[in-house]
Amino acid sequence: MINDKKVLFSGMQATGNLTLGNYLGALKNWVTLSDEYECFYSVVDMHSITVRQNPAELRKRARALLTLYIAAGLDPEKNCIYYQSHVSGHAELAWILNCFTYMGELNRMTQFKDKAAKHADNINAGLFTYPVLMAADILLYQADVVPVGIDQMQHLELTRDIAIRFNNIYGDVFTVPEAYIGKVGAKIMSLQDPAKKMSKSDENPNASIYLMDDTDTILRKCKRAVTDSLGEIRYCEEQPGIRNLIDIYSACTGKAPQETVKEFEGRGYGEFKQAVGEAVVSVLKPLQDRVHQLEKDKAYIDSVIKNNADKASYFAGKTLRKVQKKVGFPERIRG
Ligand code: TRP
Questions:
Q1: Which of 17, 158, 242, 300 has the greatest number of C-beta atoms within 10 Å?
Q2: Which reaction does it catalyse (predicted)?
């Protein structure tokens, strides 16, 4: 608890261009959670170097992501928006937690297996212990809830196991976090293959709408979205392409999927796709404008970065000192 509020932690990586799926499925919901919880939203740049990055590019993307958090409506006075690498407690706690995590547990992580297959030339120890760093992120702030997608559930389960294990040995040190399962969240699928999630790492640029795509590109991608030959706008399993477009339209307009179906009853796919594209533009254009506006104010962004790193360090330090003492590190001599 901080200020009588439950604590929420989440983070995103600044690798790849964020998509409409990241926005509608995660970022947009983060904004609605910020009243109810004391929120920490991190740009997890330490996780990013588990695969090789171009340094200048990573720095640029990390700043763009942090700016996007604010542009999306997260008030940096109320939400702690910061770079993971600015708070050394993440690395320090991760080391300690490494000593409470079993090889067998990490070996079972499906994301490690996937990434190891994809980056066969660089299967580094950081990639293997990635979930331990994630556990440190969460436990460092005594988070009660963690909004995560289904792909991160296994990591969250492991975080809980590590916390419980540690608490069993040393007493109640960590809050055991719960997954935050939002209201039927918008799970946005690829425009080219509606069986796959819309992903920032998709090789086909037409599969994803990127948050910074211009209007023409957005309209074109929607127009090219894969549908079917049934010619009817219905919200059903048999029409995954159309269903995805209904989800996108509904998430952008705030309408329920059934309302959307009614609205487009008897109309053609072409007309519907155009409307979907326009709905997406109506959401992304103002977001892009805010990003551009904020980018101009370098001093403001810098002050957010500094103040929130200090704030995060304060809370991280409290947990870290407790943990260090529990495991037997000598107390520091001050003064
Ligand atoms: N691993 C997460 C992802 O790739 C990002 C992340 C890092 C995270 N630390 C976290 C998410 C802590 C939630 C909580 O999506």
A1: 242
A2: tRNA(Trp) + L-tryptophan + ATP = L-tryptophyl-tRNA(Trp) + AMP + diphosphate + H(+)
